[in-house]
Amino acid sequence: MDVGKWQTIFGRYEAASFTVNKRFGSLVKEKLQDVLTIDQQMTLSYIKRFGSCTTTELAEAFCVNKSAITAIVTRLNEKGYIHRDRDEKDRRIVYLRLTEEGEKVFQWADEKVFEVVSPYLKIFSEEEIETFLKLYEKLASVSNEGAGEEK
Amino acid sequence: MDVGKWQTIFGRYEAASFTVNKRFGSLVKEKLQDVLTIDQQMTLSYIKRFGSCTTTELAEAFCVNKSAITAIVTRLNEKGYIHRDRDEKDRRIVYLRLTEEGEKVFQWADEKVFEVVSPYLKIFSEEEIETFLKLYEKLASVSNEGAGEEK
DNA sequence: GTGAACAGTTCAACTCTTGAACTAGTTATT
DNA sequence: AATAACTAGTTCAAGAGTTGAACTGTTCAC
């Protein structure tokens, strides 16, 4: 394939991801009202998935500085959704866990996001969605390689 | 398909888009250095695509309040990348256009974004990328329907 | 035991965002 | 023509997320 063709493909990808991200982002934000921001929801989601995790882990997953995570976690902690537990053996490490309240609000928020997004996924046939996800996951997987170097 | 299956699909979609967006976002940001933020780049890109546009148009496309656009445009204007031209007939309307400098910096930034993203797209076969884009564009298209109501 | 490395936090400065209040211009109504 | 209603855009205060530098504690290696 020549250069021009790749530019066309890039342009199409750019346009599609722009639209999907802005639209979904806006709908999700609206659904979560003043309870959680999108970043707060994603933070709870990540911690929930792994049971507990550290600031450093979150910073790597979110591709941001650790201080950005500290800020988000502090807000979630003030709202009573997250615990900060120091490791007994290595006292530098702080484990982040959901509180009871945090579990509840995460459940609620995840349901809301599902309600917003799933109707749009349901317009696809079972075969289409499988094909799409396989390719999207492939993209996610390669974009994740060589992840150690930056930040 | 039953509910559980849709939840699985939703989870897979959530995970893939999270990874791709965070990774690409981080790489693009790094490439654009202190010249442009991602939102500024997307704003220049949108204006470039349509030749000129208004604050209201941008706000709808980006799914944000008009005042958010005013802020971004003001910064781009201070940097000398954007003109504000009042419509002669309807003097409420302000047309936003790229300056010479704006055209140049957009060209540069678009090239940078292309350099970051295209290597990851190139791992797909021609058939795969076409299938993926068709489905992604379908998702973009349906997510864009019913766009008039909100905000 | 000292110095290097690491985990996490604090801080100032910036960008983006909202929502309310506002200016200025246009359209509709009577 | 005068008033009211609407529209385009801006300003402002407040809040969220981000960076990068400087900092506190803690652990590890020599």
Describe the structure.
2 copies of one chain form a homodimer. By secondary structure, chain A is mainly α. Chain A has a single domain (3-144), classed as Arc Repressor Mutant, subunit A, CATH 1.10.10. Chain A has 6 helices and 2 strands. Mean pLDDT of chain A is 94; it is low at 147-151. At the A-B interface, α1, α5 and α6 of A face α1, α5 and α6 of B. Chain A binds a DNA duplex (30 and 30 nucleotides) through α4.
Please name the defining characteristics of this protein.
homodimer; 151 residues; mainly alpha; Arc Repressor Mutant, subunit A; two-stranded antiparallel ribbon; 6 helices; 7% strand; globular; disordered C terminus; DNA-binding; WH-like_DNA-bd_sf (chains A, B); WH_DNA-bd_sf (chains A, B); transcription (chains A, B); DNA-binding (chains A, B)
Helix content of chain A: 55-70%
Mean pLDDT of chain A: 94
State the helix count of chain A. Answer: 6
CATH class term of chain A: Mainly Alpha
Shape of chain A: globular
| CATH fold-level name of chain A | Arc Repressor Mutant, subunit A
